[in-house]
Amino acid sequence: STFLAVAAILGRMPYEAIAGMLWVSIVQPYDIGDSCAIAAPGEREEVKMLVVSEIHPLSTTFIKWNGDQHTLWNWELRNLNVINYHRSAPPLWTVDVCLPTAVSAETLTSVMDFVREYAENVSKEWVTATAVIRTADYLEGTLLININLRSVFQRNEGGKLFRAASRFIIVLHSYLRALGVDFEEPAQA
């Protein structure tokens, strides 16, 4: 009789909880950092645009555009329309470095190799890195190097991403100084 009383009180709760866990783990309708729209079936006015922040077996936390966090039960989400607009790849961090055109080809090659090797050596922060010469303005005497680093962090891990980017910029600055690269804009004659 105690079992029947507990079963009557809980009702469909155990089934719904297990179904929600299976839905989020097997179907995987979203990943951390994905942009999603969530609405009740047939309702257009109650669409919520959210970014996935945390995924747990029983619940998922979303962030609204204004920074508000909302935690929804996975068994409730399973019965809603979840539209994943953007499967998020890890973020790409871009740094532009302006060097004087007087810098040697060996130095340019060294800087580009350094960027790639840095990403390989700090694999807990960066997946890949590329460095390309975006523009060469010989009238102004500048080369614009475009550095792109693909982060291992998700979009919602902004603090970790900014710290990793800051560390990279400091190390790059130190490397350029060690090479003797002059950061001042060249004077025009």
Span between N and C termini?
A: 97 Å
What is the helix fraction of residues, given as a range? 25-40%
On the 0 to 100 scale, the average pLDDT is 83
Given the C-alpha coordinates, what overall shape results?
elongated
Number of DSSP strand runs: 8
Low-confidence stretches: 185-189
Gyration radius, to the nearest Å? 25 Å
Count of alpha and pi helical runs: 5
- Percent of residues in β-strands: 25-35%
Order of helices and strands: HHEEEEHEEHEEH
- Biggest β-sheet: count, sense, barrel? 5 strands, antiparallel
Strand order of the largest sheet: 4-3-2-1-5
| Helix/sheet category | alpha+beta
Structure notes:
Helix 4 packs antiparallel against helix 5. The relative contact order is 0.14. 35% of the residues lie in helices and 32% in strands. By secondary structure, it is α+β, with helices and mostly antiparallel strands.
Task: Chart the SSEs and their pairings.
Layout: H1 2-10, H2 13-27, E1 35-39, E2 48-55, E3 59-63, E4 69-73, H3 74-77, E5 81-86, E6 92-100, H4 105-121, E7 126-137, E8 142-151, H5 158-179
Antiparallel strand pairs: 1-2, 1-5, 2-3, 3-4, 6-8, 7-8
Helix pairs in contact: 4-5
